[in-house]
Amino acid sequence: MWALINRDELASVLARRMLTRDLKRMTMTWPATEQYLVKIRKTQSKTHLLEIDFGQVNTLLREDLLAHRNRVNARYKQQFRPLCAWLLANFNRLPISRDQWLDMFDIHGRDFVRTLAPQLEKEIIWCLPGQAVPDSESVLIRNILHNETLLQDRRRRALPFWFVDTGYTNFLTGKKAWHRLVANDLHMATDLSRPFPADRLKLLPSFPRPWRVNEGPILVVENSEYHYQQQGTTLEAWRTFVLQKLKPQTDRLIVFRPKELDRKTRDNLYEHFCKKDYYCVVTDASAAAIEAVWAGIPIITLGRHISRPVARHNLADINDLYRGPIGDWLCALTYSQWTLAEMRSGLAVKMIRRYHV
Fold first, then answer.
1. CA 189 to CA 227: how far, in whole Å?
2. Is the pTM of this model over 0.85?
3. Which of 30, 169, 281, 344 has the highest CB neighbour count under 10 A?
4. Domains annotated on the chain, with CATH
5. Across-strand partners of 165?
6. CA-to-CA dists, residue 25 to 28, 72, 75, 151, 207, angstroms
């Protein structure tokens, strides 16, 4: 099996290496210790006998070391992300060979894909962005960004691959605690005809609200442009399709919500859903569908997505929304996302092969 090393990971590896060299050159200073020794010399200069409290010196040395470590950490945090961004922006201009990239990744890489790939296959061939992967070989791919062409080709021609991305309920805590691992597609398509255990329900920090019956507008949550490229269409074409299908079925207000790519500036969609009285939420294949369910808002999911068992799948059903039971689906959801520790330990791969493949 082949495993693709993302540009982001390569840039992080190089940035860590560059900053490590830079930080090693930071001058170590001992201000607290030196101040104490100077004081001792002045107060005891008349006797010409220095009585040094080595316990105090030891404490001050630790204080100086901690201060130096804090300066190193502060400088690292200040420079790491800007350096990564610059390296990504200039990635194709970096005078680094394939072998050099792979050597750096082998020594300095921290991506959990390094531990995940050998769990899927014993023999791993690491590859770089843009490198051709044989059709007969499966490939492990993390994230859509910068991998759009490879993913689209693999899906269109039904070629084998594994896909890693964020999980489905990170919105509940605001932390990237959950990840998903999917065989041969971007999202799970959970089959509830086979039972999933309920033992992982305790890992959810909260459960969805009861279904609401609102008379407000229909909210259509858009995805990113590269998402629609994966489907062989465009965002504008998808908007037109939704309007053409919905307008003959309802006179409700239809509101489109663009996807804000910047995580720092976009608002919390789940909190937004909890405050608004939307009649339903329409998505193609988006985490917004999960957030809507958690807020008690019925959904229509048009594409392949883990939310389909608790959704309608056709815009013609706009007046007959799903408000049925969700217990079995919640159990399946907890067996479709995994913590970093579970991905590294092998539990995720074991359970995915048992319940999904």
1. 17
2. no
3. 281
4. 7-93 (no CATH), 218-333 (3.40.50)
5. 180
6. 9, 10, 12, 43, 51
